[in-house]
Amino acid sequence: MPKLIEGNLEENRRSRYSSLLEAAVSIALESGSSAITITAVAKRAGISRAGAYEYFASKEELIADLIIDEIQIWSSSLSNQVELAQTPQAKVMAWVQGSLDYILSGKHKLARELSSITVPTERINEVREAHYLLMQPLVEALAQCSVSDPMRTSMYINGLLDVATRRIDSGKNNEGESDYVIALALQLIKE
After folding, report:
1. For residue range 88-138, what is the model confidence (pLDDT) as tens digits?
2. Contact status, residue 2 vs residue 16, Cβ threshold 8 Å
3. b/e map 19-33, b = 16+ CB within 10 Å
4. The dihedral formed by the CA atoms of 47, 53, 58 and 62, expressed in degrees to the nearest 10
5. Which of 12, 46, 24 lies closest to 113, judged by CA?
6. In 32-173, where does DSSP find H-type helix?
7. Where are the chain's structural domains?
8. CA 110, CA 103: separation in Å to the nearest integer?
9. DSSP class of residue 119?
10. What is the CATH number of domain 58-189?
11. Are 38 and 59 a contacting pair, CB within 8 Å?
12. What percent of the chain has pLDDT over 90?
């Protein structure tokens, strides 16, 4: 059950909201996205069903928040890694390696589970904006590498990561797949 903080309504709301998101993540990872319901999430979080509806009008709204939250966490991590790199090429490689680390840690499984649920139409732009912010450090680093079309190249690198994810999930050697993605990404930024 979420810990209530006496006298601080806003912190209590944030705590309950976080508890609901954490419960939904647990359910998605344990049983798949189809098991996420407002009732199941509320029960797991120790909050009444009616209380959960104060935060989310529907399962799809909850999923939209989960997707955006997960992308923001991943985006922040990638941005920090890119900022630490010294050269444009190292920034690209930091973004690629950070993405591979995310995949290899298994955190991508949540995104895969959530992608099977359609978010409400009015939330699609929010999800796109979060994804844009995720890609932005890579696009900027590619531009600094004098790549002729940084956006296009970032999409190809993202495609490489998608393929690597599927191959790793199917049991291929993690290290071999990671090394191959890095080698291909390096080829894309050679002058």
Report:
1. 999 999 999 999 998 888 777 777 777 777 788 898 899 899 989 999 999
2. yes
3. bbbebbbebbeeeeb
4. -50
5. 24
6. 38-45, 49-53, 59-84, 88-104, 108-114, 124-144, 150-169
7. 1-56, 58-189
8. 10
9. P
10. 1.10.357.10
11. yes
12. 54
Query: Residue 114's pLDDT is what?
Result: 74
Phi and psi dihedrals of 116, rounded to 5? -80, -10
CATH architecture of the domain with range 1-56: Orthogonal Bundle (1.10)
Tokens for 97? 């390696």
Cβ-Cβ contacts under 8 Å for 31 (sequence gap 6 or more): none
pTM of the model: 0.79
Nearest to 55, CA basis, from 73, 36, 42, 44: 42
The string of pLDDT tens digits covering residues 149-165 is: 999 999 999 999 999 98
- In this prediction, residue 2 carries a pLDDT of 52
The whole-number pLDDT of residue 191 equals 54
By residue count, the chain amounts to 191
